[in-house]
């Protein structure tokens, strides 16, 4: 049976156990009419259903996790000795071929007889495995259901059992977020250490040339993996983006929070926030086909040599993307400044703009700084706009009119979906990713701390 | 601003003098006030203008791509060309499997038929000097259309020997030429179409044989490299669909469960604080980092297939999870404790109070958060590039485990196509499709929020 | 205080609406120069709303509409030629909760004079800051830490800082909206003494829910109820011999 149908069967079992448990508990209740049942019938039902399904499901997960490796090694053990003598990498190719044959997928070139035999063997092993799994699950589910049905007595605290299981599930789900973080850190640290076994960290962090060559050239012909030009490109583009986004976003927030009539505010705010919902690939395309040529022509008109794909193009479009981010965060923060503060200033005869510039903004400054840091971290981690519009030229330059490259672009370039992570050319992507992760994490933590402090101040 | 310099204020100046100074300062200050207010308004108008420019730009580029040049031909399904045995019928003593095998063999045989001949033959009727330019003749209709003819035969073999009037998509370069997306004055060697072909196309267009027609190819077909004019989004759409399914099935329930635990059950201590900080940070981690996680853990360790929507869905789920958790928590926070206390006071257990009384009230808010999370996942590109979803896939995936692309990745792939004149519009059209999906998702979220908005 | 002093503020038929709710039902009264007048009444009676009309602070509230006329020195404060900035420089305000700006003590006081261009030189500004703090009785307590944030002071000191802040722009009238409600008794008595001194130079209108305070500091008292002015007169008369039954009930504690 396929795994999907196994899961469907488990769901049916859950419903069946539920019904049986309810029926059984009602019967127990009528037999022991002098005693009060501890829980409501549906609790007994849930309990029976869970006992039927959970252990079997656990087996299924375990089986799916462990069996492929076991089956593969059983299949490999039957191969001719000449094949077994191959290196691990070649052996992997062989087993991939056999698995394709077994699944009736085509393979390159005609299959040898021993490959066909192995494929047949693999098919049988897989069929056996599925049968064993199905019967094992059937037995466990049946035993679980029967035992729990028999256990139903007035004193059985079924509700507590059910609630404990539910709570355990809830806790399991909340650990996923933690596990994700741990997964990110561990996997990237692991691959980065592998990378550092080829290239010393000092060369990576302080090198000023980025020229990784291709992995096919081999390790003997190593390129240079200097991070500095990439970081410089990232900083340049993020800086331009912030130059565009901070004044616009802040002025939008101030105007909408302090001046705009309610109607304008209620229309303009969601419209500007539309910018935040547009996928970044769309911005990238917009930058590439519209903004880039426009800036180039504009530059030509005033005698500047601007590349169509340049730090400027990517930065300007990224700035547009970030406007709603800064404006809505700042809007929240500005409206949080207590009214008494404004009243105090207005009561002294200050104009509205004087009140905003000299009282409201200074009071809101920490929060706004936090918002700007969050926006900066987004700009640094942004990928698609720079992939399309920054020009992908990892040169160390401070000229915004030239093409540059960034950390994110390079990650995409180096890890083109190749699942062979053994060359430094691919591994460097993880070192870059880790660098990116640490930088954005620092920015986020500082920003969150500042914003939280700010909120507490006015609560 | 006059006499004060000689007359420094000792204590506080006399009222009238002060008033005079205030009055003197008024003009300057009101000018500043107006300037500031106008700056703010300008910023708002610029931002709104940018939204407008972006949308107008994409729509004006993309909308024409929904209409494509198509040539109207009377196709004669010539039995001389389509020489195939009759469609096999299942015999009584035959197993389903054997029959299927025979049917596939029959289809394979149809595959050898030269359907292009059908097209060129009927083109000859409208183009008198066609015989002298057979190479060009074979290129008028985009190559993907012969499969459309084949599919017609497979679906209904009785069509052989009949004539049907069909609208067939022309080659992408013809579409470009007729839409004026290429400079007609360019010399021959820079033109994609031969001089003869350009002459034909202009004639056919003038005769009304080639017309600009609304084409479903963009929606119905998977991507193609050989037949650019019929390259479509169907494969990418299904890829995105499977990924969203995974996100809805994984990220949403898990996020809601995590939020319920953290908001309602978790003790307030250092660990929950850490979890909270962790979730907030995870929400701000660049999406590409999730792609790296997918590449190294899901593909590298768990040996899941490359380019498969299941892997993309898992990566996007992890990415969306914090969004769902944060939205759900703030919804739960907004529900007043009195509701919980009322339920607890009636003897419900904490679990019952939350699942029977609090959660139903939170559903609109949770749905809103979930939809916004799904919309975010739908538009995400960068992590998918790292798990191999940028490879070219020419089929529509039948399950989440097969190779597939995704809508935003398809946009990325198309914008890089060499036939820029054709694909700039087609990419914009794909963006329109993506944007419409995002806007409807966001609209749905806003509608839900408006409809069930409740102030406690 | 005799009624021979010139009229500083003259209100007639002032009505205030918040959206569809009418908060004040036609208030008319005069405020004389250099007197202390207190507004008393149960919460929600409109006394603060009326106070905020006198320097048009209600303008800052959306949906708030004021009708009727208020004359300051015989000039209507709603007339278009009169700038609200100028009005508020003339009629200062101290709020219920001390609201020093998140700036240094010095900057808090110097804020108004700087805005209005009252001091040409740094020395002038220093003079204004010192004299304002002295008159608010705060100088000796803060002279050594003028550069420290105003929010670091105690509640009573913060409120005196706010009073000093409004004195610094040399207003003619100071409106005080329950200035002691957030303060402890000792800080309250210091502020009350301060009010007594300030009335030499300023006209003071004070809203209070504390009847003893009204009796202690004010020359005249006005009693508001449900948006109406019920009674106004010399403080002694209002407290010892109220003309209206409602005033008497409120003063004797029947409601409040």
From TrEMBL, chain A:
Bilayer topology: Multi-pass membrane protein
CDD domains given in the database record: TM_PBP2
UniProt domain ABC transmembrane type-1: residue ranges: 231-447
Matches recorded under PROSITE patterns: ABC_TM1
Cell location: Cell inner membrane; Cell membrane
Transmembrane segments: 6-23, 44-66, 130-153, 165-189, 235-259, 271-291, 311-334, 355-376, 427-451
Keywords: Cell inner membrane, Cell membrane, Membrane, Phosphate transport, Transmembrane, Transmembrane helix, Transport
Superkingdom field: Bacteria
Role this protein plays: Part of the binding-protein-dependent transport system for phosphate; probably responsible for the translocation of the substrate across the membrane.
Family that this chain belongs to: Belongs to the binding-protein-dependent transport system permease family. CysTW subfamily.
Name this polypeptide is given: Phosphate transport system permease protein
Species of origin: Rheinheimera maricola
Gene: pstC
UniProtKB/TrEMBL annotation, chain B:
Sorted UniProt keywords: Cell membrane, Membrane, Transmembrane, Transmembrane helix, Transport
Lineage of producing organism: Bacteria, Pseudomonadati, Pseudomonadota, Gammaproteobacteria, Chromatiales
Residues covered by the ABC transmembrane type-1 domain: 237-445
Membrane topology category: Multi-pass membrane protein
Bilayer-crossing regions: 39-59, 241-262, 282-304, 310-332, 353-375, 429-448
PANTHER family linked to this entry: PHOSPHATE TRANSPORT SYSTEM PERMEASE PROTEIN PSTA (PTHR43470:SF5), PHOSPHATE TRANSPORT SYSTEM PERMEASE PROTEIN PSTA-RELATED (PTHR43470)
Entry's localization field: Cell inner membrane; Cell membrane
Family: Belongs to the binding-protein-dependent transport system permease family. CysTW subfamily.
Protein name: Phosphate transport system permease protein PstA
UniProtKB/TrEMBL annotation, chain C:
UniProt keyword terms in alphabetical order: ATP-binding, Nucleotide-binding, Phosphate transport, Transport
Ranges for domain ABC transporter: 9-251
InterPro entries according to UniProt: AAA+_ATPase, ABC_transporter-like_ATP-bd, ABC_transporter-like_CS, P-loop_NTPase, PstB-like
Keyword Hydrolase: no
SUPFAM superfamilies per UniProt: P-loop containing nucleoside triphosphate hydrolases (SSF52540)
Pfam family, one: ABC_tran
UniProt cross-references to PROSITE patterns, sorted A to Z: ABC_TRANSPORTER_1 (PS00211), ABC_TRANSPORTER_2 (PS50893)
CDD domains: ABC_PstB_phosphate_transporter (cd03260)
GO terms assigned for molecular function: ATP binding
Protein name in UniProt: Phosphate ABC transporter ATP-binding protein PstB
Gene field: pstB
């Amino acid at each position: 049976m396929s795994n999907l149908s196994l899961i469907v069967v488990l769901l049916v079992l859950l419903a069946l156990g539920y019904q049986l448990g309810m029926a059984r508990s009602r019967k127990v209740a009528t037999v022991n009419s002098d005693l009060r049942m501890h829980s409501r019938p549906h609790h007994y039902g849930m309990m029976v259903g869970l006992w039927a399904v959970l252990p079997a499901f656990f087996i299924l997960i375990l089986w799916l996790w462990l069996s492929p490796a076991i089956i593969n090694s059983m299949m490999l053990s039957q191969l001719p000795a000449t094949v077994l003598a191959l290196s691990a990498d070649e052996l992997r190719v062989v087993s991939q071929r056999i698995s394709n044959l077994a699944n009736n997928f085509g393979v390159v070139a005609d299959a040898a007889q021993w490959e066909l035999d192995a494929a047949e063997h693999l098919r049988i092993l897989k069929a056996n495995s599925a049968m064993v799994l199905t019967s094992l699950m059937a037995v466990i589910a049946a035993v679980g259901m029967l035992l729990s049905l028999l256990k139903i007595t007035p004193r059985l605290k079924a509700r507590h059992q059910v609630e404990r299981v539910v709570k355990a599930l809830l806790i399991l789900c909340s650990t996923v977020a933690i596990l994700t973080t741990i997964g990110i850190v561990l996997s990237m640290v692991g691959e980065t250490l592998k990378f550092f076994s080829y290239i010393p960290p000092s060369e990576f962090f302080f090198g000023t040339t980025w020229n990784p060559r291709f992995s096919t050239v081999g390790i003997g012909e190593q390129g240079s993996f200097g991070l500095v030009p990439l970081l410089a490109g990232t900083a340049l583009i993020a800086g331009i983006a912030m130059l565009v986004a901070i004044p616009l976003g802040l002025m939008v927030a101030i105007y909408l929070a302090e001046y705009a009539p309610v109607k304008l505010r209620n229309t303009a705010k969601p419209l500007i926030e539309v910018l935040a919902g547009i996928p970044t690939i769309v911005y990238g395309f917009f930058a590439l086909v519209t903004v880039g040529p426009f800036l180039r022509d504009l530059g030509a008109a005033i005698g500047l040599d601007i590349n169509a794909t340049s730090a400027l193009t990517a930065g300007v479009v990224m700035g547009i993307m970030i406007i709603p981010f800064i404006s809505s965060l700042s809007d929240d923060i500005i409206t949080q400044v207590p009214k008494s503060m404004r009243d105090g200033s207005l009561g002294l005869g200050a104009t509205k703009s004087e009140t905003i510039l000299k009282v409201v903004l200074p009071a809101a400054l920490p929060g706004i700084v936090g918002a700007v840091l969050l926006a900066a971290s987004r700009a640094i981690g942004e990928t698609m706009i720079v992939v399309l519009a920054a020009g992908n030229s990892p040169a160390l330059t401070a000229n915004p009119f030239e093409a540059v490259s960034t950390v994110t672009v390079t990650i995409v370039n180096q890890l083109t979906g190749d699942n062979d992570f053994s060359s430094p050319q691919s591994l460097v992507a993880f070192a870059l990713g880790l660098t990116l992760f640490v930088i954005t994490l620092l920015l986020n933590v500082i920003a969150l701390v500042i914003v939280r402090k700010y909120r507490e101040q006015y609560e | 601003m006059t006499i004060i310099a000689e007359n420094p204020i000792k204590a506080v100046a006399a009222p009238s003098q002060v008033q005079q100074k205030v009055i003197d300062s008024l003009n300057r200050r009101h000018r500043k006030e107006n300037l500031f207010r106008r700056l703010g308004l300008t910023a708002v108008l610029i931002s709104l203008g940018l939204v407008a420019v972006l949308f107008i730009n994409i729509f004006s580029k993309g909308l024409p791509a929904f209409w494509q040049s198509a040539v109207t031909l009377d196709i004669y399904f010539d039995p001389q060309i389509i020489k195939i045995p009759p469609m096999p019928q299942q015999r009584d003593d035959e197993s389903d499997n054997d029959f299927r095998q025979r049917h596939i063999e029959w289809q394979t045989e149809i595959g050898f038929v030269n359907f292009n001949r059908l097209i060129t033959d009927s083109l000859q009727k409208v183009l008198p000097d066609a015989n002298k330019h057979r190479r060009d003749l074979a290129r008028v209709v985009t190559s993907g259309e012969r499969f459309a003819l084949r599919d017609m035969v497979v679906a209904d073999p009785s069509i052989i020997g009949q004539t049907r009037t069909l609208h067939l998509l022309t080659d992408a370069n013809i579409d470009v030429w007729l839409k004026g997306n290429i400079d007609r004055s360019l010399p021959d060697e820079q033109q994609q179409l031969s001089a003869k072909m350009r002459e034909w196309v202009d004639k056919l267009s003038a005769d009304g044989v080639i017309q600009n027609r609304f084409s479903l190819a963009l929606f119905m077909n998977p991507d193609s490299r050989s037949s650019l004019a019929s390259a479509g989004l169907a494969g990418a759409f299904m890829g995105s669909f499977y990924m969203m399914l995974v996100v809805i099935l994984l990220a949403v329930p898990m996020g809601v469960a995590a939020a319920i635990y953290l908001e309602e059950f978790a003790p307030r201590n250092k660990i929950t604080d850490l979890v909270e900080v962790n979730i907030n940070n995870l929400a701000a981690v660049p999406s590409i980092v999730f792609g790296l996680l997918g590449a190294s853990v899901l593909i590298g360790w768990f040996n899941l297939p490359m380019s498969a929507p299941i892997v993309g869905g898992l990566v996007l789920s992890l990415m969306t999870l914090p969004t769902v958790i944060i939205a759900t928590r703030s919804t739960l926070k907004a529900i007043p404790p009195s509701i919980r206390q009322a339920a607890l006071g009636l003897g419900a257990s904490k679990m019952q109070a939350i699942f029977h009384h609090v959660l139903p009230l939170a559903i609109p808010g949770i749905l809103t958060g979930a939809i916004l999370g799904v919309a975010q996942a739908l538009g995400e590109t960068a992590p998918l590039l790292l798990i191999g979803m940028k490879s070219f896939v020419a089929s529509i995936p039948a399950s989440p485990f097969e190779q597939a692309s995704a809508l935003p990745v398809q946009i990325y792939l198309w914008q890089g196509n060499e036939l820029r004149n054709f694909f700039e519009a087609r990419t914009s059209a794909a963006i329109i499709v993506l944007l419409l999906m995002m806007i409807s998702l966001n609209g749905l979220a806003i509608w839900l929020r408006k409809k069930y908005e409740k102030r406690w | 205080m005799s009624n021979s002093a010139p009229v500083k503020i003259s209100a007639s038929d002032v009505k205030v609406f918040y959206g569809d709710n009418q908060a004040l039902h036609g208030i008319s009264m005069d405020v004389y120069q250099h007197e202390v007048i207190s507004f008393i009444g149960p919460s929600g009676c409109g006394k603060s709303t009326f106070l905020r009309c006198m320097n048009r602070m209600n303008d800052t509230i959306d949906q708030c509409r004021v009708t009727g006329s208020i004359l300051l020195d015989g000039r209507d404060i709603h007339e278009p030629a009169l700038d609200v900035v100028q009005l508020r420089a003339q009629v200062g305000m101290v709020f219920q909760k001390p609201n020093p700006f998140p700036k240094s003590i010095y900057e808090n006081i110097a804020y108004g004079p700087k805005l209005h261009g009252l001091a040409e030189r740094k020395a002038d500004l220093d003079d204004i800051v010192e004299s304002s703090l002295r008159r608010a009785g705060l100088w000796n307590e803060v002279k050594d830490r003028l550069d420290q944030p105003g929010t670091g002071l105690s509640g009573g000191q913060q409120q005196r800082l706010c009073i000093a802040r409004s004195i610094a722009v040399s207003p003619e009238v100071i409106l005080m909206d329950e200035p002691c409600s957030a303060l402890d008794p000792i800080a309250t008595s210091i502020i009350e003494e301060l009010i007594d001194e300030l009335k030499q130079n300023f006209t003071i209108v004070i809203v209070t829910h504390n009847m003893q305070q009204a009796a202690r500091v004010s020359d005249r008292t006005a009693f508001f109820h449900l948006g109406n002015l019920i009674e106004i007169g010399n403080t002694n008369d209002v407290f010892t011999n109220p003309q209206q039954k409602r005033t008497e009930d409120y003063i004797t504690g029947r409601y409040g």
